[in-house]
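thread: overnight batch results

M.L. [08:02]
morning all. the overnight job finished for the chain we discussed friday. pasting input first so we're all looking at the same thing
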Amino acid sequence: MNQAAAVPELELFTDFVCPWCYLGNAALSQLASEMPIKITRTPFPLHPSTPPEGLLLSELLAGRDFSAIHQRLNAEMDKLELPYGERRYTYNSRLAQELALWADTQAEGRPLDALLYQAYFVHDRNIAKIEVLLPLVEQAGLDAAAAQQVLQTRSFSAQVDAAWQRARSFGISGVPTFVYGGYGSSGYMQVQQLRDFIQFVQEKQSQPH
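M.L. [08:03]
and the structure it wrote out:
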């Protein structure tokens, strides 16, 4: 099959508490509504040592212009018509990542990702708590009892460990990172930049070796 005609398969390394990942996931979803692409979302440990109760963003971003960062992020979210609210904390996303990988194994599980992002970025919910996660499972139309067992037994912990190791093996140190055809791009890309990235890789792949 002609490589240029193949459906692009993009891998997004992401974390549910990363605002640029929230944007990157939305940009990818918009692109997927405009052209045929296959998307794999792989969890990344952005702040894995965050305590279960969360950490104030003012502590996490100490010494940085907090208001300017939010102003820039909110402007980008407005461009994509993404909802957002006021956030004071960052939270530990490990359980949410385990839940998302479980959802990938379920029929119609993909909408859960958007709900996990929104729980944090719109409603400032602590996604380290099972009682926060389970209503999202129900909202996504998935089996809440099965999800509760996954979270309580940590049956997808090894899968998240493997995903984190995959990121390390690629040398990824920040997210969002987009990987396609052996090429990677770190940092948020708007929809047109994603199109350009796909075209760049396809042109490289079509060149004689």
